[in-house]
């Protein structure tokens, strides 16, 4: 069973672990000690949180639970113009189980109801992009590092 709970300050240790899981593959080849990796992850996590809070001060921060176990985090900002998927990250042991798909489809249903697109940014190198494309997200802008992607019901209607 999947459930969202509001992220609280006492969840920070878990949320750092989730963030570390998103960087583990990248850091594996750096040759750093475990202590250096931990310091780097902690610093980068703090920078990311600060950036998200500055850009999306009204965002909702959630811990994703699967069968009462902490599985990941979801950050969503709802603006007048869009539903912004700021971040969805899962611990490696919870990936490829349909959790991301479940919450993305939930945001798509919300998008249909409020007639606002779901928008997100994803690193070019992030495999999650394939999931987003499979669910009908379209690339609206790209740089060397990032894709801006968007989903709106009208995109799906145009495909049919």
Model description:
The protein has 160 residues and is α+β, with helices and mostly antiparallel strands. It has one domain: Aminopeptidase, CATH 3.40.630. Helix content is 42%, strand content 29%. The protein is built from five helices and seven strands, in the order βααβββαβαββα. The mean pLDDT is 93.
Descriptive terms for the model:
single chain; 160 residues; alpha+beta; Aminopeptidase; seven-stranded mixed beta sheet; 7 strands; globular
Brief summary of the model shown:
The protein has 160 residues and is of the alpha+beta class. The protein contains five helices and seven strands, in the order E-H-H-E-E-E-H-E-H-E-E-H.
Unreliable stretches (pLDDT < 50, length at least 5) are none
Shape: globular
Q: What is the percent of helical residues?
A: 40-55%
Structural class: alpha+beta
In spatial order, strands of the major sheet run 1-2-3-4-5-7-6
Rounded to the nearest angstrom, the distance between the terminal CA atoms is 32 Å
* Beta-strand percentage range: 25-35%
Mean pLDDT reading: 93
């Amino acid at each position: 069973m999947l459930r969202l709970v509001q992220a609280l300050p006492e969840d920070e240790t878990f949320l750092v672990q989730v963030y570390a899981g998103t960087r583990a593959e990248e850091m594996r080849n750096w040759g750093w000690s475990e202590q250096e990796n931990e310091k780097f992850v902690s610093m980068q996590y703090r920078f990311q949180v600060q950036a998200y809070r500055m850009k999306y001060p009204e965002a909702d921060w959630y811990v994703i639970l699967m069968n009462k176990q902490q599985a990941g985090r979801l950050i969503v900002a709802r603006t007048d113009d869009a539903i912004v998927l700021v971040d969805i990250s899962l611990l490696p042991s919870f990936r490829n189980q349909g959790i991301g798909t479940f919450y993305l489809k939930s945001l798509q249903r919300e998008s249909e109801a409020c007639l606002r697109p779901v928008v997100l940014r994803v690193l070019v190198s992030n495999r999650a992009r394939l999931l987003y494309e499979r669910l009908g997200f379209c690339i609206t802008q790209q740089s060397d590092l990032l894709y801006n992607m968007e989903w709106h019901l009208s995109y799906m209607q145009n495909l049919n």
